[in-house]
Amino acid sequence: MFNKEIESMPEKKMKELQLERLKWSVNHAYTNVPFYKKKFDAAGFHPDQLKSLDDMKRVPFLTKQDMRDNYPYGLFAVPLSKVVRVHASSGTTGNATVVGYTKSDVNVFAEVVARCLAAYGVSENDVIQNAYGYGLFTGGLGLHYGSEKLGALTVPISGGNTPRQLMLFKDFGTTVLCSTPSYALNVADYIETKMPDFKIESTKLRVGVFGAEPWSEAMRAEIEKRLKIDAYDIYGLSEVIGPGVSCECSAKSGLHVHEDHFYVEIIDPDTGEVLPEGTKGEIVYTSLTKEAFPGIRYRSRDISMLYHDNCSCGRTLVKMEKVSGRSDDMLIIRGVNVFPSQVETILMEAEGTEPHYQIIVDRKGSMDDIEVMVEVNEKIFSDELKVLNNLSKNIADRFRSVLGITAKVTLVEPQTIPRSEGKAVRVVDKRKI
Amino acid sequence: MNVTQLSAFVSNKPGHLQKVLKALADENVNIVTLIVAETSDFGILRMIVNDSERGLKALRENNITCSVNDVLALEIDDKPGSLFNALDVFAKKNLNIEYMYAFTEKRDGRAVMIFRFEDIEAAKNALADSGYNIVRKIDLIGENK
Does B48 share its domain with B18? Predict the structure, then answer.
């Protein structure tokens, strides 16, 4: 463990630490950000009323829209002279959401990422090739600073240029790859189709650190098999800090939340009511130590569940289930809740199709129409029409049996579906409701 | 004789077939004959080319999904009833033809048919068993290979 005292702290002691830090954080936001003061006052809440963790349920939520409305610096709680870095999300559906970090925030960010890497069995003896995009996206710099904090040799290659990535695997003796899980599969595809003589076994690669998009257990199995590595989930969101909010450990089941820095709750996404441990719902985050950009009860839209399970790794930190989808990515198709991760599992199980797919939902008349586009690679291609027709039919059948919805399956050429080095666009909702 | 067929996956949209043809043209790969099996969304382009290995490489480098496999090439008389007679051999042995197509060019006044079987050896044996001596080793793919 990178920080044994915190990571194995008894639950009760952790709760005391959280309450103490919560009081500071909520007061910090109220005192220094007019937006919070206005919002809290309107809700009849004052930071002095925060006497126990349970009182958090009285605090109003922060939404992505609030962040957009206060673009760019409206939610910062310190003068800009104290801010040393900003990150921002892409802003494809409105203003970008901008977050700021003081020197201390940058240190916290590095610390939680270093804890994650240590939880995957990575140490200063490793060579970490960081293929997350460097830039406004938190992935690149987040992993970079965490890797340096751990003391590992850090290769800041950024995303893309797969031939160069492979060359550095060999030349630099890379042992750890950090990227999105879909990029890891791209690398495996590239080796198979373009560089059949490249033997991944001949490299020292042993660990993959994957995050920034939801991925299924089936996808983990495929990445591990094809790249001959242990693949671990790293979770985070820029609104909270970036990657490192939580991480898997050697148990590869559930992610430990770094709850000394982030207080987590699960709520019912429809009513906003707090749900007990062991219940699925939307995760809500409150920063406990962040100076520049305190986030108080930020609605993540990520769907998960919190639990304690006496983890075999020795960490006592609360666990969250691997995120199964986002409440705003969740599609309601003809009344059925569908998460992209379910679609991924269906595709992986139908003839081993890799999950380069996109779901397009449209409304024709009063009926929702779902189309699943699947890229045809050499593994599933056949010169016989009946084989490809069967593949479409199998996928459509599984949609019907698993999700209870009728989908049109369209097979498309490779590289048809947009995929960035960052997040893959899995769902296009064209419905105008 | 066995002939190597090159197949490619092509979306059924304007310009997509050209992408395949350009990839082959750029590598100086000549198409001897071809057929497209189409659906409303996509087509499977099957081709006999003068250099299937180079063709496969060219398509892969252009991110076109493709494969190669063996098909049976059969030379028959270009006159009424000869295709019927040839197919009779397969029907009698209960061998299903997955698909077939013809060469565009005649060879010495004879037609060349391409057959795709699940089991190409069984089809060849059937022809031999029936004494149907119509298989001829012909130069299918031109002078440059």
Answer: yes
- Same domain, residue pair B78 and B119: yes
What digits encode the pLDDT tens for the residues A250-267?
999 999 999 999 999 999
B81 plus B53 within the same structural domain: no
Give ipTM to 2 decimals.
Answer: 0.85
Q: Among B85, B116, B79, which residue's Cα sits nearest to residue A384?
A: B116
CATH code of the domain containing B118: 3.30.70.260
Fold of A1-326: Rossmann fold (3.40.50)
More confident call, A346 vs A207: A207
CB contact residues (below 8 A), chain B span 60-79, against chain A: 60-61, 63-67, 69
Rounded-to-integer distance, Cα B11 and Cα B9, Å:
7
CB distance A412–B39 less than 8 Å?
no
Place of tokens 């409304």: A363
- Distance separating alpha carbons of residues B125 and B107, to the nearest angstrom: 24
Domain shared by B74 and B38, yes or no: no
Residue B144 neighbours by CB distance under 10 Å: 8
What is the domain extent for residue B79?
70-129
Residue B136 has pLDDT above 70, yes or no: no
**Cβ neighbours of residue B25 closer than 8 Å, sequence gap 6 or more:** none
Contact A414 B63 (CB under 8 A): yes
Sign of the dihedral defined by the CA atoms of residues A385, A388, A394, A395, in that order: negative
Q: Residue B116: closest CA among chain A residues belongs to which residue?
A: A384
Please indicate, yes or no, whether residues B61 and B77 belong to a single structural domain of this protein. Answer: no
Residues of chain B with Cβ-Cβ distance to A412 below 8 Å are: 11, 41-42
CB nearest to B65's CB, from A377, A384, A385 = A377
Domain A331-429 has CATH 3.40.640.10: no
Q: How many domains does chain B fold into?
A: 2
CB-nearest partner of A385 from B16, B37, B67: B37
Amino acid in the structure at residue A383: D
CB contact (8 A) between residue A382 and residue B67: yes
Predicted local confidence at residue A183, as pLDDT: 87
Judging contacts by C-beta atoms under 8 Å, the chain B residues touching residue A410 are: 41
> Do B41 and B64 reside in the same domain of the chain?
yes
For testing the chain A interface, which of B4, B18, B20, B44 should be mutated: the one with the most A CBs within 10 Å? Answer: B44
All CATH 3.30.300.30 domain ranges of chain A, comma separated, are 331-429
Cβ distance B116 to A389 less than 8 Å, yes or no, reads no
